[in-house]
Write a structure and sequence with these properties.
The protein is built from 18 helices and 13 strands. By secondary structure, it is α/β, with parallel strands linked by helices. The structure holds uridine-5'-diphosphate-glucuronic acid. It comes from Jiangella alba.
Amino acid sequence: MIVTMRISVIGTGYLGAVHAVGMAELGYTVVGIDVDAEKVAALARGEAPFYEPGLDELLAKHAGTGRLTFTTDFAAAAGADVHFVCVGTPQRRDGLAADMRYVEAAVDSLAPHLDAACLVVGKSTVPVGTAVALADRLAKTAPVGAGAELAWNPEFLREGFAVEDTLHPDRLVFGVTSDDAERKLREVYAQTIADGTPVIVSDLPTAELVKVSANAFLATKISFINAMAEIAEVAGADVTKLADAIGHDARIGRKFLNAGIGFGGGCLPKDIRAFMARAGELGASHSLAFLAEIDAINLRRRQYVVDLTRDLVGGSVANRRIAVLGAAFKPHSDDVRDSPALNIAGQLHLQGARVSVYDPKATDNARKVFPTLPYADSAVEACRDASVVLHLTEWQEFRELDPAELAGIVETPVVVDGRNCLDADAWRAAGWTYRGLGRP
Ligand code: UGA
């Protein structure tokens, strides 16, 4: 019976914590396991260790009922029918490749507790070929041997919409090597499938590749429109109108065509780099050579804003007050991993600017990675006496700012809209010099 299925989730970061809660919401008995005792303690208290809309409510609903528990003890995974591996695969410090040590450690810590038939399901984003290697590793190290079967079930959730994406994914991908594994995954997701979510069943390498190719495509779409922004900047055209116009072509679509300061976060940037590294290992560097250009276009956007800011204050930012609105890599998230906003703030700070950064949710995380940056407690405080205001993360709060009020507290009313989403007419009407990106 579905309701008695027991699930373990290894790794309780952005992906694992939401997946564990989602599995509990589907009615399963779930244990979340992580090596980070602090994170586990917070989750066990029913507190999300990061900001994700809707997560606190579901945690409070299930933590404490006994159906959803969290621990650092891998022995708690023993006896579960399905184990989801959800640990991170960050970029290695010594190159572009993914750091696989957390995935390997997770599997090695889990394996000794697998003494009955079960399914181990990889969800982490990994270089193609990982699953086959892990299946081999499991068969050799688990007491049940090949009875611990490996499957791959990539995750496509977006931060900020993670709960919604987990409960209502737009597709499910099952990489399997047996009918049994497929049956088990169909049982886990029975409710989601009944709701109409399409299922694609494939082999292991295809399932791994679906994930990285989807992210490579999304990154390409963003860098494409940012390349158009570069052209618009030199041709005196408007990239937002261009995006609207080409986006009406259903084959292109308007989503992910917002030009601005480019993509960041813990996924897109490192995933395209790891994908290139893996292609190189497979002797197919040429196939993904274009992704180096996608990465380069993306990083140029940050530089462009730094250079534009310098121009706007007359050639040097030294000792100039610069307000930075936003630190998270995108709104609805407190994640600052590879955040373009924080990177721009950091570059200006290092050039001697008196930067003041405000973010509604990400300030604590920003302080951890960039403690020397000055942070403000509100947008208004950040803007006080500023020579330029940089709008870098498109929080709703920033769209609701009153440009007339802000004009009265800055030194010079100049705003750079790094996300092209402020009401340009309203800001101009209030006396501001408004600069969008890729727009006249
Ligand atoms: C991304 C993918 O969208 C998810 O499908 C995937 O599951 C996830 O990575 C992952 O691999 O785990 P996420 O990193 O949460 O999700 O954020 P996105 O919504 O993709 O945004 C990524 C970056 O692109 C942000 O910095 C955002 O500001 C930027 N972006 C997005 C643009 O600059 N322009 C756009 O039009 C869209």
